[in-house]
Amino acid sequence: QWQWTWTKMLLSLCILSASIPFLLYLFSDSIDLSRPSDIGLNHTINMYLTPEQGVRVGVWHTVPEHRWKEAQGKDLDWYEKALGDGSPIFIYLHGNGGNRSAPHRIGIANVLSAVGYHALVMDYRGFGDSTGEPTEAGLTTDVLYLYHWVKARSGNSPVCVWGHSLGSGVASTTAVKLLEQGKQFNGIILEGAFLNARMETNKLTEHPFTWFYWKFPYIQYFLFNPLKNKDLNLPTDENLQKLRTPLMILHAEDDHLVPFASAQEIYRIAKKAQNSDERVKLVRFDGSLGYLHNGLYKDPGLPNIIR
Predict the structure, then answer these.
(1) DSSP state for residue 157 in the 8-state scheme
(2) Is 102's pLDDT higher than 70?
(3) Three-state SS for 32?
(4) 15, 98, 169, 224: which is deepest, by most CB within 10 A?
(5) Annotated catalytic residue, options 123, 142, 237, 255
(6) 287-298 per-position pLDDT tens digit
(7) Which helix (H) or strand (E) holds 110?
(8) What is the residue-wise DSSP string for 269-304?
(9) Which biological process, per GO, is one annotated for this protein (predicted)?
């Protein structure tokens, strides 16, 4: 009888583990991404850009928190002009699966806003309500277009990029493309960064419990992932050898998808390439804090780290 009881408990746990992400996906999918105010983002506007013919990408622009009262009822023209107010601007590139309404992505935008910065959070083509088929070339094209769109409106405001998880590879690859154009981001933040997108050949990402976390709490990355079965490279390890942009690496020791060893290797590569302790920083978040892969936005010290 006790064996049957334990079997039922185990089955219930498996069903719950699979159901919660599914329900969260349905909830996020039901959000009207064109109306960020519906989920409490009262100084954020939605816009759509067209990086290529037939491709439309959705972007949320959150202004600095001290301008929230001024932002009430304002249109896109006001938000565009606000980019030139001298405040730093961050283009946030999210990870694999879901859309710009995910809680941890909103969390980062809110932290940047509270510090006094602009945050532009984009859904790549094929993600959220953005149209088009996601490919490696397509992702970087979307980000390059957004960068140039921002630069055309931002005056002398510094423009940085923040890449989380898969977005770290998109950020570093885009930075190299910009370098080829004779331009560069003013700063780069990589959070929970992969060495590259070739997971099967990246020995530093081997972890005894990775299969569990991917198949249960993060099952949406398999079931609802526009990039599933895509041939991606996004070689952050190779890209950082070419870049000389100030870089900060944020990583939790208990990251269950990308082990901390990945951050250490990224730091080693970038530090060697830039030959500087000042231009390359690694910020470690203690594993006892329980931030895992998506929770760094909760850290009370993060605003000062970003400053």
Answers:
(1) -
(2) yes
(3) coil
(4) 169
(5) 255
(6) 999 999 999 999
(7) helix 103-115
(8) HHHHHHT-SSSEEEEEE-GGG--TTT-GGG-TTHHH
(9) monoacylglycerol catabolic process
The mean per-residue pLDDT over the stretch 220-243 comes to 72
66 included as an active-site residue: no
Q: Please state, in angstroms and as integers, the Cα–Cα distance from residue 75 to each residue in 9, 14, 43, 81, 82, following that order.
A: 53, 46, 11, 10, 11
What the block records as the tokens of 258 is 């990308």
The one catalytic residue among 43, 94, 164, 293: 293
Q: Which two tokens stand for residue 23?
A: 């329900």
Lowest average pLDDT, out of 188-192, 206-210, 280-284, goes to 206-210
| pLDDT at residue 186 greater than cutoff 90 | yes
| DSSP secondary structure of 37-104 | GGGT-TTEEEEEEEEETTEEEEEEEE--GGGHHHHTT--HHHHHHHTTSS--EEEEE--SSS-TTSHH
* Mean per-residue pLDDT, 21-48: 79
pTM of the full structure: 0.85
Query: Hey, is 144 helix, strand or coil?
Result: helix
pLDDT at 220: 41
**Dist. CA 166–CA 202, nearest whole Å:** 14
Catalytic residue among 165, 168, 172, 262: 165
Q: In the 8-state DSSP scheme, what is residue 155?
A: T
Q: How far apart are CA 221 and CA 132, in angstroms?
A: 19
And the tokens for 74? 């304002």
Say if CB 230 and CB 237 are below 8 A apart: no
Give the pair of three-digit tokens for residue 280.
């390359």
**What Å distances lie between residue 166 and 60, 169, 171, 229, 241, CA to CA?**
19, 5, 9, 14, 19
CB-based contact 7:77 (threshold 8 Å):
no
Has 165 been annotated as catalytic? yes
- Angle of helix 136-151 versus helix 166-180 axis, rounded to 10: 60
* Beta carbons within 10 angstroms of residue 229's beta carbon: 5
